[in-house]
Design goal:
This protein is mainly α. The protein has helices at about 5-20, 35-45, 45-60, 80-100, 105-135, 135-140, 145-174, and strands at about 20-25, 30. A hairpin with a 6-residue loop joins strand 1 (about 20-25) and strand 2. It is globular.
């Protein structure tokens, strides 16, 4: 298997593991999925990052219990939290595009970009959720409680990406 394809599969697996780290909340569980989604984009680039998300979501749709709370099948793609899932691939692609443009080289701008991408993910998810619970409750249930975690996960994406970059640079020097 070519190295790039293996990386796509590895990040899909990381998303699945991130989905296992959850804080049970209703109707939207808090997990590390978004951290893995953004890291896939930053690390693999726009196309491969989005491909890893597509693989992850395909596995879920085919019935593997890889989503938060072990969710699987087509129901999560029709339910109240589907908007979050639909936002994953575009957000990964945007993270990859920012990374390839060099927009993430400095820590503070990188943190701001990752926080903005988390905000986009939350807003798309909340827009879909509003169909089920109304706009006010969608913000209260699908955005507000996730802001602190999104900031922490944004910082973790930046730290992990910088560590990966440093490790890659060092191995090229060896």
């Amino acid at each position: 298997m070519p190295r790039r394809a293996l990386a796509v599969v590895a990040f899909a697996a990381l998303m699945s593991l991130g989905a296992r780290v959850t804080a049970p909340m209703v109707p939207v569980p808090m997990s590390l999925q978004s951290w893995a989604v953004l890291l896939a984009g930053v690390t693999l680039g726009a196309r491969a990052g989005a491909a890893s998300v597509a693989l992850y979501l395909t596995l879920a749709a085919l019935g593997l219990p890889v989503l938060a709370g072990g969710a699987h099948g087509l129901a999560p793609f029709r339910g109240a939290t589907a908007g979050f899932l639909f936002a994953f691939a575009p957000v990964a692609a945007l993270a990859g595009a920012l990374s390839s443009r060099g927009s993430l080289r400095r820590p503070l701008p990188a943190l701001a970009w990752m926080a903005a991408l988390h905000a986009l993910l939350l807003l798309v998810g909340a827009a879909w959720l509003a169909r089920y619970v109304g706009p006010r409750r969608a913000i209260a249930l699908g955005v507000t409680p996730f802001i602190p975690g999104a900031l922490v996960k944004s910082a973790l994406v930046v730290l992990a990406a910088r560590a990966t970059t440093l490790t890659t640079a060092r191995s090229k020097l060896s």
